[in-house]
Protein: Xylose repressor
Amino acid sequence: MTAPLHKARPAGAGRALPDTQQGMRRRNLARVMHTVSAAGTLSRAAVASRIGLTRAAVSTLVEELIRTGLLEELGPERPGRVGRPGSALAVSGRGPAGIGAEVGVDHLAVCAVDLRGEVRSTATRHGTNRGRAVQPVVDELRELVRGVVAEAERAGLWPAGLAVAVPGLVARDARTVVRAPNLDWRDTDLTGLLDVPFPLSVGNEANFGALAELWLGEGTPRDFLHVSAEIGIGAAVVVDGGLLHGTRGFAGELGHVPVRPDGPECPCGSRGCLEQYAGEEAVLRAAGLGPGADRVGLLAERAAAGDADVRRALRDAGTALGVALTGAVNLLDPESVVLGGALAALAPWLLPSLESELDRRTAGPACPVAVSRLGSEGPLLGAAHSVVRAVLDDPGVVAERGEPRMGPGSSL
Ligand SMILES: [Zn+2]
Structure:
């Protein structure tokens, strides 16, 4: 196991590189990668003019990025133009890939995303992980990772790192799940259990969902609250384009904000938490439905068909969400609130009461509420893209480290 590619910040939020000649070279490699990535295709001359370096300096950097498989040459650009044509550069669709994984309460999922942001391989396994020991779950996850990596390798990719999204509190070391109540995991260091021959980081699923919204959503602001739900309710606070982690990495536990101080007991030890009113199980109970497969789909189907009990349960959940979010909005003054995960699918029936509470209770003008288009894929995509972003942010590290060896002796 090598050192994590991106330690406490799986966000790829831009690390400070050392202020040395070597640091300068790595920063310039990153500028070239980001410039080409943002443009799609670009000539060396265009890169040079955009980042303000000489053509010769850019050529040296580009050669290194081509040699290490991060950029590729597409051939002459606009051959009809007068003068010597520049060769178009693009981010490579081969080479390093980000592997994302998600441990859900009811599923496991893995995907590989290339440096262009395209999903190249996915695998999912449905079935409850609640009440299971950690190791068998991790073993199954490793099997899925192995299959996804094998498929990515057949397409000429190699894993630059693995980021795992979990529904729980993750320590700032980005490897230890301190507490995941719905999985019953406690103080679990996944790097030891999920031994893979490339860098691994672990993060809270709500945080990865928010990052996916930040990086892949349309017109997402740089200051927003992201609220999502699976069994629990997760939230993440994005400030100036980066995650607010909190002292221990636990910021964003909106699900345990009290809505009614004397309400029902919550597994966290408190009473009347938001999760007791707007969590999936609470809503199902209020709607008179039992647990089962695709519960969110069932709620949406019944609500769309006009089921009065389901609509009332969702309206009440929206009210509870509005009350809890008012506190967060008054405190943080975000540009918007984004509903993701299961909440996005139920938004038509949650939003009226949620927005009315926010309107009524917010001190300033009401904060707009948007609905994520990423749906339940958000955390998985956010995890994979966090690895991709880390490569774009510091391509020099990947170039120096090179491909992990995965021969017969490999632990994967
Ligand atoms: Zn609670």
In short: Residues 308-332 form the longest helix (25 residues).
